Amino acid sequence: MTSIAVYHCIEEEQPFAEQWAADHGIQVTCFPFELHEDTLHTIEGFDGISYKQRSAPSNRPDFYQRLNAYGIRQIALRSAGYDTIDLMEAARNHIRVTNVPSYSPSAVAELTLAHIMRLIRHVPQFDDRASRHDFSVYGLISREISELTIGIIGVGRIGSTVARIFHALGATVLGNDIAPNHELDDILTWVSKDELLARADVVTMHTYLDATTRHLMDASQFAQMKPTAYFVNNSRGGVVDTPALIDALNRREIAGAAIDVLEGEATLFGNKLDAEQPLDNPYYNALHAMENVVITPHIAFFTDIAVKNMVWQSLDDALALITGGTSPHEIAPYDNQSHIK
Q: Where is the D-isomer specific 2-hydroxyacid dehydrogenase catalytic domain (predicted)?
C-alpha cells in the first residue's frame, strides 16, 4: 500500500489526515515532530512526505541526496511559504516540491483585520492601563476605518482579500505589487511602494519570502512612513528587517506594529516553553516589551477551513507525484539557499 509520512502533524490536523487516508485507501502516518537530521531515519519505508515546519530540515549538503536514497521523490508542503526548502538541492536529487498556495485567503485576511482593529483602537494600551486599574481614556482617541488609507504590499490572493474587506468598510485602499491585478481597479489604487509608504495610515505585508523580498521593509522604508502610521506583517518574518522595525518603533518613526511572523520564530512559535525560563529571541523580547505592539504566534492560517485545505491539498499533491502524475502547485527550482529561515 502507498504510504505517506506527515511531519509536524498537530492534533487539529490529524482528523483531516485520517479522513483523507480513509477516502483514498492510502496509509498515512502522522508524526508530531519535524523532519530533521535526528528524525530522518523515520522516513524509511514511506513513499512520500507531507511537511510543515518553520526551520530548514538540515544544513548538510547531502540531506536531499539521503532523502533520495530512501526512495523519496517529492515533498508536499502544507503551507504557501517554501523558504525552508532548498529547491535547487531538491531538484538535483530528483525530488519535486509542491506547496499549498491558497489554503484560505480569508483566514489570513481576517487576522489582519483583527490586528489592525487592535492597533487603531489602542487595545494594547487600554489593556496595559487596565492591568494597573487605570481606566482613563485620555490620550488614546481613535480614528475610524473610513478615515484611513490602507496600503497593501503584495496584492495576491490574500492581499486582494484584505483589499476587499477594507474597501467594504469604507477605507481608501492602495496596492503595490510586481504584477498588478487590474480586476481590482474598482476597489484600490495602484501606486509605487514609495508613494504607498508615504500615504498609508496602515501598511500591511502579504508577500512570499524569496530573494527579492527578503528585508523588503528595512530602515529606509520605515523612515518613509508617517509617524502616525501602523505596520502589519502576516506574511513571513524574513520580509522585515526586524532590528530596523524595532528601531523605528523606538524612534517613534511609526505609531505601532502587529506581527504574526518573526525572524527566528522557529524556537518560539508553535512551542510550549518553560514559563520560568527567559526567552532566547531578542527580537521577540524587544517587541513584546512595547505597549504599542501586537504579537500573535504565527496563527493567521489556523482556522478549521484553512487547516483542512492545507492537509488535503498537500496529500493530494503527494499522491499525484508519487503515482507519476503532476500538480499545478509544483514549485520550479531556483537557488533559495541563501534565505532559508
A: 6-331
